[in-house]
Specification:
The complex is a heterodimer. Helices cover about 25% and strands about 25% of the residues of chain A. Chain A is of the alpha/beta class. Chain A has 2 domains: about 170 residues, FAD/NAD(P)-binding domain, CATH 3.50.50.60; about 160 residues, 2-Layer Sandwich (D-Amino Acid Oxidase, Chain A, domain 2). The termini of chain A are far apart. Chain B is of the alpha+beta class. Chain B has a single domain, classed as Folate-binding superfamily (Folate-binding fold), CATH 3.30.2270. In chain B, strand 1 and strand 2 form a beta hairpin. The longest helix of chain B is centred in the C-terminal third of the chain and has 9 residues. Classes of the chains: A alpha/beta, B alpha+beta. Chains A and B meet through helix 6 of A and strand 3 and helix 1 of B. Chain B: InterPro entries: SoxD (IPR006279), SoxD_sf (IPR038561). Chain B: It comes from Desulfonema ishimotonii. Chain B: Pfam families: SoxD. Chain B: GO terms for molecular function: sarcosine oxidase activity. Chain B: This is Sarcosine oxidase subunit delta.
Chain lengths: ~400, ~90
């Protein structure tokens, strides 16, 4: 049933000895970049090399939430464009991505959190993104099941309502982009592992895979949770990344009760109700780096406690399934999108932590532009790896939570 | 398979009692003549090993001591220090 190769796209195309670009990782960032290279820049001699099968990693493990209510000036325009792309791509790919813009409600559990949200709302509005500060009563009107009394350990002081956000069917995005790219000639090699990157005179010359060598002058590292390990193993480039397991779970199906995505930074809990009726919810990350994608009883318990604190009607409901994925966290909770720096022709798109899904399509668009033209797009420049050496960390760590080890 | 950590003072305990302290990057660099690049390298950059790595831990909810262990990041299992085990094999 879960064969390594025959997932959706059938047999692999023959591996050519030369491609104009090689993309490591058949996740959403890799597939989106391949799709935009083919459709926007006419680069169709492109290979996507995926060790397992497309969508195996974080592309299919995230909780499918999309939003554009981040905190910093650098991040907001990127996520806004990402949000605007879903309806465009649904049409263009001729594939129902099941974009459901039900809106996101972020809860505040202290005066300080309300104050922080005031700034976040103002920043979003400055960029033309709809976002409102709401009081507890308005929270209750949006989600009647919320407990807005002073009974919970952290009572609700208010919230931030962001109507354009919502959820997108993550697997559909994988399938849509993969089919769209393959139709235009991109080769997607599943069950194929990249084993090395060869550099000659400071330029990318070829990529080794377990199926043979590929000559190419451009390679994109879009390997998600494994991008930092590959970067170090292949090129000796160390990245400011900690790879942590993040856990998620769904409850048994229920009648519709959660009409918006609800999240709480204080409880560290976010939840949405799928069209099947399940409450899909995500938890903390493990506090130590690991590549296990294991769930732990610790977080299933935490999640049950957190959810039933502000949605008491969920008491007694059962979790049906749980899973975990990898989040490659940076110290400033912002990604690294860079290229042609230490090695000419080596591009990287990593450090997305747990924001990689909502940003995948827009990142693919700009990384494709970067790789096709060699010009660093303006919108990506703040996300250079050099910001760490220049001590220009971004302020996306809204809740003073740093997931790097040196926190 | 949850994580357990062996504290040199308290013994093998549940991993959630501990605080991870980062990859073992050797001694803190000398501040004299330290460049921002070198400091950034020490403070932020990681090898992100998918396999065995030597790392710092603190027994936060126990005795409070700091120590290093070797752990396989793909299984969460503590392992013997690679050099030490090679030495033992040689004997």
């Amino acid at each position: 049933m879960f064969s390594k190769k025959k997932r959706l796209l059938g047999d692999n195309p023959p591996l050519k000895s030369t491609y104009d670009a090689v993309i490591i990782g058949g996740g959403l960032h890799g597939l989106a970049t391949a799709y935009f290279l083919a459709t926007r820049h006419g680069m169709t001699n492109v290979a996507v090399i995926e060790k397992r099968f497309i969508g195996f990693g974080a592309a299919g493990r995230n909780t499918a939430i999309v939003r554009a209510n981040q905190r910093t000036q650098e991040n907001l325009p990127l996520y806004k464009e990402a949000l605007d792309l879903w309806p465009v791509l649904t049409k263009e790919l001729d594939f129902n991505l099941m974009f459901y813009n039900c809106g996101n409600l972020n809860l505040a559990h202290s005066e300080a959190a309300v104050k922080a949200m005031r700034l976040q709302v103002a920043s979003a509005q400055f960029h033309g993104i709809e976002s409102h500060l709401v009081d507890p009563q308005q929270c209750k009107e949006l989600v009647p099941a919320l407990d807005i009394t002073d009974k919970p350990r952290y009572p609700i002081y208010g919230g931030m309502y962001h109507p354009p956000g919502g959820i997108v069917r993550h697997d559909a995005v994988v399938w849509g982009l993969a089919k769209g790219a393959a139709k235009r000639g991109v080769h997607i090699h599943q069950g194929t592992a990249v084993t090395g990157i060869n550099v000659e005179n400071g330029k990318v010359a070829s990529v080794d895979t377990d199926k043979g060598k590929i000559h190419t002058s451009r390679v994109l590292n879009a390997a998600g949770g494994y991008s930092a390990a590959l970067s170090y193993d292949f090129l000796g480039i160390r990245l400011p990344i900690s790879v942590l397991t993040i856990q998620a779970m769904v409850t048994q199906p229920l009648k519709p009760l959660l009409h918006h995505v609800v999240s709480s930074g204080m409880y560290h809990c976010y939840a949405n109700q799928t069209l099947k009726g399940e409450i899909a919810t995500g938890a903390h990350m493990d506090a130590w780096p690991n590549y296990t994608t294991q769930n732990t009883a610790h977080y299933i318990k935490h999640q049950a406690e957190a959810l039933t604190e502000f949605l008491p009607c969920l008491k007694g409901i059962k979790f049906m399934r749980c899973w975990a994925g990898l989040a490659d966290m940076t110290p400033d909770m912002a990604p690294i999108m860079d290229g042609n720096d230490q090695v000419e022709g080596y591009y990287m798109d990593c450090g997305w932590g747990y924001f990689g899904f909502k940003s995948s399509t827009v990142t693919g668009k700009y990384m494709a532009e970067f790789m096709a033209t060699g010009e660093y797009p303006e919108i990506l420049k703040p996300f250079t790896l050099r910001r760490f050496k220049e001590h220009r960390l971004m302020g996306e760590t809204a809740a003073l939570v740093s997931y790097s080890a040196d926190n | 398979m949850a994580l357990t950590i062996t504290c040199p003072i308290c013994g093998k305990r549940n991993g959630y009692e501990f605080r991870y302290g980062g990859e073992d990057k050797g001694p803190r660099p000398d501040e004299a003549g330290l460049t921002p690049e070198d400091w950034c390298d020490y403070a932020h950059m990681n090898n992100c090993v998918a396999g065995v790595q030597k790392e710092w831990w603190c027994h936060r909810d126990g005795c409070g001591s700091w120590f290093t262990i070797c752990r396989d990041t793909t299984t969460n299992l503590e392992v013997a220090e690679p050099a030490a085990s090679a030495e033992a094999e040689a004997k």
